[in-house]
Amino acid sequence: MTSQASPVIDLLDPGPFARDDFWDTLAWLRAHAPVYRHEGGGAPFWVLTKHRDITDVYADSTHFGSRFGMRIGSDVAAVAAVAQRMLIVSDPPQHTAVKRTLMEWFGPARMPRVERLVRQVVDELVTDDILDRPLDFIEVAKRLPNHVVCALMDLPRADWDWVGMVTTEAFDDASGKQANTEIFLYFADLLATRRARPGDDFVSWVAAHGRVESDGGRPLTDEEIIFNCNGVLSGANETTRYVAAGALLAFSKFPGQWERLRALGASELPAAVEEALRWTSPGVHAMRTVLRPTEVAGQRLRPGERVTLWNASANRDEEVFDEPDRFLVDRSPNRHLAFGHGRHLCLGARMARCELGALFGRLAELVGQVELLGTPSFTPSNFTWGVSALPLRLHPRA
């Protein structure tokens, strides 16, 4: 149980996220101030921590918008430059039109190809070579989504490691601006090449088929294609990496759950993936801006006010999840918000689930025990958060 005494609430402080000790603060807010006005750090903002309130706001694009930024601390000028052109900072009807175009490529018809590629990448990464020796598992976790998405975009193999590195740097407050510039320039050159010599890849497909039906069916501009390719790349890399590493950390702390997953077999892999998503919650918060007067849980909100939706808190909400602070691979139901909710449900959710299922399945075949060898490190971020270093030994199955 959390203390009745009010803790110091500073969700802008990177320290608790770097130490993985922000969970008690979110639990206190759920219990005592589920709609909380956060002061400090410039303009105040509202903090929502209950599952029901967060899903309500996600579903309400009439009163809450994304086009003014989708995280606390966003560069106002940078957001304005991509608003209504980049999926994550767009509102209907532009958001609906762009997402429909991108979703066509990630639709069911193409999933068999994606699944084959994922299995190939997992087989390359998870071999006997990573067993029975000290290992920083993040090195495996970060390559899985990066290799898959780079292959789907048909990027030169020599560029894959650089693309993964600069994509991560784009989320860093110190290096983010330079990293984003580099990746935008990279995709500008790539797009020009694909227009001249199109192939059977994501970039070529969007360049040829991308349309904005809400704007007379016009083709996506080069800038819109570049912005959204970067968005797909970033989302694919960050989420799967942090969920994979966070899940292995959980299995080291709850060894009975690793044994249970192995005993249950492939049929329970989807449930284990959903629990890993809930448990890790790499997309810690998202932001919306109030567009017109409204209220949440009785609290009146005014146009222009910023509202933050704490997915990580919703995923531990005691009213929705039994024993929310336990990691249970066969948890059901599991109404987590790791991918958001409503119109802004993550574009790459299907691919991320495929990657994580293939990874857990292959590890279950090879690994008998997950042993933590040292203290893990975490990213000092209240936005995209997770394990940044994870010293493990993966003991082979007998």
Describe it for me?
Helices cover 47% and strands 13% of the residues. Helix 8 (160-169) packs across helix 9 (176-196) and helix 11 runs parallel beside helix 15. A hairpin with a 2-residue loop joins strand 8 and strand 9 (299-301). The two termini are 40 Å apart. The chain is α+β, with helices and mostly antiparallel strands and 398 residues long.
Brief overview:
This protein has 398 residues and is of the alpha+beta class. The chain has 15 helices and 14 strands.
| Number of DSSP strand runs | 14
Mean pLDDT: 90
Alpha-beta classification: alpha+beta
- Alpha carbon gap, first and last residue: 40 Å
Evaluate the radius of gyration.
21 Å
Q: Could you spell the SSE succession in H and E letters?
A: HHEEHEHHHEHHHHEEHHHEEEEHHEEEE
List key phrases describing it.
13% strand; alpha+beta; 398 residues; five-stranded mixed β-sheet
Walk me through the topology.
Layout: H1 15-19, H2 23-32, E1 35-38, E2 45-48, H3 51-59, E3 64-65, H4 76-82, H5 94-105, H6 111-125, E4 134-136, H7 138-152, H8 160-169, H9 176-196, H10 202-209, E5 211-212, E6 218-219, H11 222-253, H12 255-264, H13 269-280, E7 285-290, E8 294-296, E9 299-301, E10 306-310, H14 311-314, H15 349-366, E11 367-372, E12 377-378, E13 387-389, E14 391-396
Parallel strand pairs: 2-10
Antiparallel strand pairs: 1-2, 3-7, 4-14, 5-6, 7-10, 8-9, 11-14, 12-13
